[in-house]
């Protein structure tokens, strides 16, 4: 016991025992960042995960860029766009934008990229999103592209900003994965070297266009290291092997942030956490979850504020809607269910379940939150068993309609628009939709093809209030994003939680 | 011997074949590899696209037949996750695991042999009991826990060895200690028993009568004979190190095949899991065979028989 | 860990060969030997203490091991700054009393240990006795199964199975049990073979006892001491296997307090709150050491020749 106490004392003091050795990084102008996910492919057009968004932000440009400060889409390599008619968008390109190999950007490159993504041979991850609305892209002249659309689609500019990165014409002609390991992009950094699964070295690109909204870009070299284990990341940060890590849990962030040479930086995030309930009765047509009183009872059983404050911390907040409050169209005036276990019990009794019922709850991340939810539901008499595992098995079980309820999260790809969460969860052809109310589906899909923003808002309001009244979900909380950063580094954060590494600079 | 070896090896292959079908089946019906590839925020369209690209939308039996056909031609397929031939990934990762296996077996030898010899030399004394205590303790320590404690003490508090990774030899010190320690009890006890047997034998009594005492006796006469059974057990243990490095490699972030196995199972990377199951089964049986052969070659009594 | 059962087989086999089938020793002799065996006493004492802790957990634990207090989460233990006696070992990530969870964790470990060792015993002894008694084709078939089992990557297979079936205490017990029977088989098979040759079996055959009668009345009782020894060892092996599976997240499902799971939960913050990793590890260690000491001791007193 005594030795063990000594170990504990030593380790508790550890952050202070480690000498704040002078880090070489500021001196050689190199920022080393750690990703938990392995980078295996440089081409964002063929990938989906968040780490690839961060990387792509550094090496690529799309036509537009999302500005987190004004919450709008602003021109990037384009100068602007114009609807010639509801089904045709014309985009003009900026002068003086060059690829990392020195060649200038032309309308031909843009048209090629878009047409390739929706082509037969393409295996692009963006294909499904783009082919929904794009018929074809045509280069009218050297600097002008026209996008001919299949249907009216107000989010076309968002997709151009978020989903498609411009490639040189002909890039994919011989190989759909041609840009996976050697990429010629337009972004502020060019790829100096790439070892799949291990390391990407990026150098500031001196030909980067001055008018870019990403300017000013300050740090000369960025090294991205794949360190799948968070313990390794922590140790490396202590010893100066890395300068930056993200997706840190609150407890680790707070403990490590106490060290003299490490800053704990917190930002809000567009990700929300919620329970989806089998209101339709896929698992059991007569099941308790098909009863709205039961679903409302579950909403009353969860203490959202407590989870947000104690488990998430730093800017996380209770959420009562099936979308993040910061998203466009996310009407906050819908029905709210306050934390009231007594009322929950009464509702369960009224619904005919005074003794509660058996419920299998699936989850795939934030085990602590899942355990809190379980305890709260059990406190009102529902006999919950937790099935905490991997995303891939949760999704397979859900696709087979074997899930009564799951603890889901959605980050909306950083898009501050209700569309980015509503379609995925409430359209008719997604198994995430476990309520299958055709009315909600119609409203959500109608909003996607409505150009008028006020009308769009009204459609979402109606959908969201049905979802809230019927308690299809138990919306719970929004996430906070914790970063740990070398104290010599200035790292600004943004409301959407997406780290913009090109904005970092030395103090 | 040759016939026997072939029989054992073909049995291993048969086991691997059955097992591969079962895992293929189970992983297929219990997980969605497309989702594992796409990540948590992937929209359904994206997942659908991946399903088509990888052919997950085709019937299960067709895909198994395709995979099995490939294996017969020596092609274990492409990893869903790494987008590279599985054989290439496994080959790239094997040296690290081999190094770890050999280093840990060395740790086992360095600890277990002297302990066993000393214990046998002074049976039922304090030294013997201490050796036994080491064996009993080593058997009872959860391997993964020992790894974490080593990291806390040697890598973080005292900063003697690196926390994790596999870029230099010093990265292998802690993991090979952890992995090696788990074999100490078996090898130590066997050495001790073997030594005791030999010490009772006639020729040692003769040697004693000739005046050999202490360590000279051990070195000159006893060790060589006592070590025979130990060597074959070491071969078996080496097989275990190779296949049993899953947890150790994961804790110390060593990019070997053990960690690959764990990640592939959790990530539903079926082709990789399949090949590793084959590899582990065959290595294990081969090591057992090697042990048998060593026994036959080294033990004169067996050779005569 | 999981592979150790296999690792030790050759060694146990050698042992089994040495150990003549235990002659029916009078209980007094056993008790006398036990009194002189320090390791056995220590092992049994710890086992008994942990069994009592598990039985009387509700009386011993200061809190409900499932009760969460989010406002009191991640409290340090009492000897650290900020610790309080209310939570002697602090609280975990959702504000549950760590000491209470440690105490209740003994139930899971013992349940899985005894459950899995029993399942393994049923499989292994059945196969071993059948193979040893009947020999021939049955022996050959059992040998095939044994070799097949030995070629399986045990930990990986257990992981895959639990991952796919879905974790629960019973699934873990079943899978760990089904993967740990080779010890029993090897030992009971050779012991049965030797018993067969001994006079009293032949005598029983001569007076016309059926094969089943011989198996149950003459063979099995004589195997009991050896089975008991293996059972005690396998108890430790099964407990370690459970902790490893739970540590990897494919064992006992949360929020059930399992020591392996608790180590996994503490792992993320182990640099700052090492006791969350150290304490459950010590608990597992104590339990398994006790089982091994008891196993060693039982072997020594039931067949004293076995040790040397």
TrEMBL record, chain A:
A GO MF label: peptide transmembrane transporter activity
SUPFAM superfamilies found in the cross-reference section: Periplasmic binding protein-like II
Record's keyword annotation contains Ribosomal protein: no
Cleaved signal peptide residues: 1-24
Name used for this protein in its record: Peptide/nickel transport system substrate-binding protein
GO cellular component, one term: ATP-binding cassette (ABC) transporter complex
Family stated for the protein in its record: Belongs to the bacterial solute-binding protein 5 family.
Automatic annotation (TrEMBL), chain B:
Matches recorded under PANTHER family: DIPEPTIDE TRANSPORT SYSTEM PERMEASE PROTEIN DPPB-RELATED (PTHR43163)
Topology relative to the membrane: Multi-pass membrane protein
Keyword annotations: Cell membrane, Membrane, Transmembrane, Transmembrane helix, Transport
Family per similarity comment: Belongs to the binding-protein-dependent transport system permease family.
Lineage of the species this protein comes from: Bacteria, Pseudomonadati, Pseudomonadota, Alphaproteobacteria, Hyphomicrobiales
Cellular compartment(s): Cell membrane
GO biological process, one term: transmembrane transport
Classification via Pfam families: BPD_transp_1, BPD_transp_1_N
PROSITE patterns: ABC_TM1 (PS50928)
InterPro entries from the UniProt entry: BPD_transp_1_N, MetI-like, MetI-like_sf
Segments traversing the membrane: 98-121, 142-161, 276-298
Residues covered by the ABC transmembrane type-1 domain: 94-291
Gene3D superfamilies assigned: MetI-like
Protein name (record): Peptide/nickel transport system permease protein
UniProtKB/TrEMBL annotation, chain C:
Transmembrane segments: 40-61, 108-134, 141-163, 169-187, 227-252, 272-294
Keywords from the named record: Cell membrane, Membrane, Peptide transport, Protein transport, Transmembrane, Transmembrane helix, Transport
GO biological process: peptide transport; protein transport; transmembrane transport
InterPro entries associated with the record: BP-dependent_transpt_permease (IPR050366), MetI-like (IPR000515), MetI-like_sf (IPR035906), OppC_N (IPR025966)
Highest taxon, organism lineage: Bacteria
Any one GO CC term of the record: plasma membrane
Compartments, as annotated in UniProt: Cell membrane
Domain annotation ABC transmembrane type-1: ranges: 106-295
Matching CDD domains: TM_PBP2
UniProt topology in membrane: Multi-pass membrane protein
Family listed: Belongs to the binding-protein-dependent transport system permease family.
Descriptive protein name: Peptide/nickel transport system permease protein
Origin species: Roseibium marinum
